[in-house]
Write a structure and sequence with these properties.
Blueprint: E1 12-16, E2 19-22, E3 26-28, E4 38-40, E5 42-49, H1 56-66, E6 74-81, E7 86-93, E8 105-114, E9 117-125, H2 130-142, E10 152-155
């Protein structure tokens, strides 16, 4: 996996064999040299044994709940490869002042099943920075190897 430019292993304060997360924002440069970078407020990587009997939607809900995302986070975009048990989802996350997150966020969730495991990446940025950094985040997520299946791009409001 290629981390977004500006992020290194040093950004991860918790680093275990199956889970890593950042707690300090890191500035990432954009894929395009003419564009400014943006702050990535949070990033997490995890891996766990895939349960093929669970639908991707169930796994997404479980992951968001485990990471502390509120139930009123809104799914705004998705690109799924159901045959490959993989996809990218974009959520609008409300501010959570009680947990130390005073501003809203936009979050990219990437999931991919391979070798009997589910690989998950979460990136979170301020909504105002989204358009600047989204391509960098997507390219980083795709570097984990989305290679099979057919794309079923949809947009939900």
């Amino acid at each position: 996996m290629h981390l977004p430019k500006g992020m290194t292993e040093d950004n991860f304060v918790e680093f275990q064999p199956a889970f890593a997360r950042s707690t300090v924002a890191a500035e990432s440069t954009n894929c395009h040299p003419d564009m400014p970078g943006a702050m990535i407020n949070f990033m997490a990587l995890t891996m766990f044994e895939d349960d093929p009997s669970k639908r991707l939607a169930e796994l997404r809900t479980d992951i968001l709940e485990a990471l502390g995302y509120p139930a009123d986070s809104v799914l705004v975009e998705r690109a799924e490869l159901p045959d490959a048990r993989a996809g990218l989802w974009v959520y609008e996350v409300p501010a959570m002042p009680d947990t130390g997150t005073p501003e809203p966020a936009k979050m990219l969730l990437s999931m991919r099943s391979a070798h009997g495991n589910m690989f998950v990446i979460v990136y979170e940025v301020h909504p105002n920075a989204w358009s600047v950094i989204v391509n960098t985040l997507v390219q980083s997520a795709l570097s984990t190897g989305y290679t099979s299946g057919s794309s079923g791009n949809t947009t939900e409001k």
